[in-house]
Every structure is written in C-alpha cells, then in structure tokens.
Amino acid sequence: MAFLGAILAALLVHALAGNGRRGNAPLRLVLAGVIVSDFLALTTAVLLILDEAMLDAVRQWTVGSLVGQGRAGLAAALPWLGAALGLALLLRARLSLLALGPEVAAGLGLAVARWCGRSGSGWLCCWPPWRLRWPTPWASSA
Known about the structure:
With about 140 residues, the chain is mostly helical. Helix content is about 70%, strand content about 0%.
C-alpha cells in the first residue's frame, strides 16, 4: 500500500512539474516535490490530530514502546536488544574515540577513514561540526 502511495506521489510530482519545451527541469521537479511532500505531511498531521486513538498508536510505534505488548512483544525484542548491546560493548572504545572528533581519534591511533566507512558509524565523521573541516573520501564528488 505504501509503495502504491509512493508511485502516486511521484506521478503527481511529475504532473505538477509539467513537460516544458525541454522536458522536466530539475528545479521544477524539486519545487513540485516539496509541494507534494508538504501537502502529504499536512494531510497526515491533520488525520492524526483528528483521531486521538490513531495518534497514540502512531506515537507508540514511532518511539518503539513495548507498552501493551505483553511477554510476546518483549520476547521478540530481546534478541535484537541483546545484539545491539553486544555490538555497542564490542565497539565502545573505537566509537568513544570517534566521538572525540576525527583529528583526535587519528592522533590517538585510530584508522578513522576505515572505521567511518566500514563500521556503520560513518555518521560520526559527518556529524557537525566536523563535517565542515573533515574531508571524507566516500563523500567526494570526484
């Protein structure tokens, strides 16, 4: 159902952008996409405000709450929580170095480019304020 909605939204964006003499101009596509995105976000917000039960359900789903799930919900979440905790404990020293900033981590002996690119922690290397002064090899346009 979500895929069908995405297709309809894409068709609406292309219809709003129109077919000019040179086809769809990138700027017109972007502006049409912003308009459709804002309209759909507004529609979702209005529907959630009007139906309080739906708002509560969406809020609990978004936050990831296990309230009202019982033992079955907890049993389904425990393996994932255990794996995430184990991975965090395994990588805690390297991730702590990366949290200090790429320059400090490199100065302390961490291979920053390797860890940012392969460990799934690349967001630490691109996180402000380091993003502006730390070139990442995988984000270059060349």
